[in-house]
Design goal:
By secondary structure, this protein is of the alpha/beta class. The protein has 2 domains: 28-108, Chemotaxis Receptor Methyltransferase Cher, domain 1, CATH 1.10.155.10; 121-305, Rossmann fold (3-Layer(aba) Sandwich). It is 36% helix and 16% strand. The protein contains 11 helices and 10 strands. The chain has helices at 46-60, 69-83, 88-97, 101-109, 121-133, 150-163, 179-187, 192-195, 200-206, 222-225, 260-270, and strands spanning 139-144, 170-176, 189-191, 207-209, 217-220, 228-232, 246-251, 274-282, 295-297, 302-305. Strands 6-2-1-7-8-10-9 form a 7-stranded mixed sheet, covered by helices on one side. Strands 3-5-4 form a 3-stranded antiparallel sheet. Helix 6 links the parallel strand 1 (139-144) and strand 2. Bound molecules: S-adenosylmethionine. The site of S-adenosylmethionine has 25 residues, from loops.
Length: 311
């Protein structure tokens, strides 16, 4: 059910057991480029990289180019160290027998870059949209790929400002595939450097300074937090626990990790969830021209359904 209270940690585990990895025998000449094989702490062959690339694509839709070998190595090396594995082959075998490891595997390979009011023009457009709907009903927003929470809390701040109230008629579902970033968002505690670009008015209205061990950090005010529920949702899952109609879908800076057929199939499922006058907000480098039979651009990477009354 959409907008139910979020599940308490641990957030739901990811994944299904993979097929058995196909392995190529290791040889230094066949090792992945970048950091020289002999300098690597863990044996990492091209076959290991291919296997990881296939698994993360099948499971999360993330399409890794071959230029990402060093990134994959460094992200997973930490995990091998803490598991006590000596080679990527051993780690892949662990992944095969231990379903619980999938969550950490996926969490390690996601890229979670975000910030408060990233691509700020979208929040101005949303504020206009909210004011147009007014207070006659609850406005429902799904912020997927929400990472560590800065984006859904920016939506909540926008709603508070648009209605000049800490209890605006707005519900925000924040979701992501990565359980560690969701836990961060749920906790709602941010270091000073994460909020330093916010105005003093926003800082004092929406955050409380922490003390003790967390001194220097800031916590989202409970009124704001009440507007946002966090939930693990993999956009690739065949079922989403989300019901329409939605006024807005924020799906920003995640589609770039997916190939076009994956993007299209997700967009096809967004459209019936949107209200006819609802808006889909995409990231600045994401274009859905290939889905012109599904959505129409309103400019500035805001899209609407083809049958939308909005021009
Ligand atoms: C670069 S961040 C974008 C954060 C935020 N939307 C923004 O624009 O600032 C991409 C997020 O997409 C999430 N993600 C990647 N694959 C996903 C999937 N299959 N389903 C849901 N979220 C996914 C990642 O975990 C990550 O937090």
């Amino acid at each position: 059910m959409v907008f139910d209270p979020p599940p308490r940690r641990p957030l739901s585990p990811a994944g299904t057991a993979p097929d058995a990895p196909r392995r190529a025998p290791f040889s230094p000449a066949a090792s992945a480029p970048g950091l020289a094989a002999r300098d690597r702490e863990f044996e990492f062959t091209p076959a290991d990289f291919e296997r990881i690339r296939t698994l993360i694509h099948q499971h999360a839709g993330i399409a890794l180019s071959s230029a990402k070998q060093d990134m994959v190595y460094s992200r997973l090396a930490r995990r091998l160290r803490s598991c006590g594995d000596r080679t990527f082959a051993q780690y892949l075998a662990r992944l095969e027998r231990d379903r619980g490891e999938w969550e950490t595997f996926v969490n390690s390979l996601t890229t979670n870059l975000t910030s408060f009011f990233r691509e700020p023009h979208h929040f101005d457009i949303l504020a206009d949209q909210l004011r147009q709907v007014g207070e006659k009903r609850t406005i429902r927003i799904w912020c997927n790929a929400a990472s560590t929470g800065e984006e859904p809390y920016s939506l909540a701040m926008t709603a508070c400002e648009a209605f000049n109230s800490l209890a605006p008629p707005v519900q925000i579902l924040a979701s992501d595939i990565d359980t560690s970033v969701l836990a961060h968002g749920e906790a709602g505690i941010y270091r000073q450097d994460r909020i330093e670009r916010l105005s003093d008015a926003r800082k004092s209205r929406f955050f409380t300074p922490r003390s003790g061990a967390d001194a220097g950090a800031f916590e989202i005010r409970p009124e704001l937090r009440r507007l946002v529920s966090f939930r693990r949702i993999n956009l690739l899952d065949p079922m989403w626990p989300v019901q329409g109609p939605l006024d807005a879908i924020f799906c920003r800076n995640v589609m770039i990790y997916f190939d076009k057929p994956t993007q299209y199939s997700i967009l096809k499922r967004f459209v019936p969830l949107l209200r006819p006058d609802g808006q889909l907000y995409a990231g600045h480098s994401e274009s859905f021209m290939h889905a012109a039979d599904l959505v129409r651009s309103r400019g500035r990477t805001v899209y609407v359904r083809l049958d939308s009354p909005l021009r």
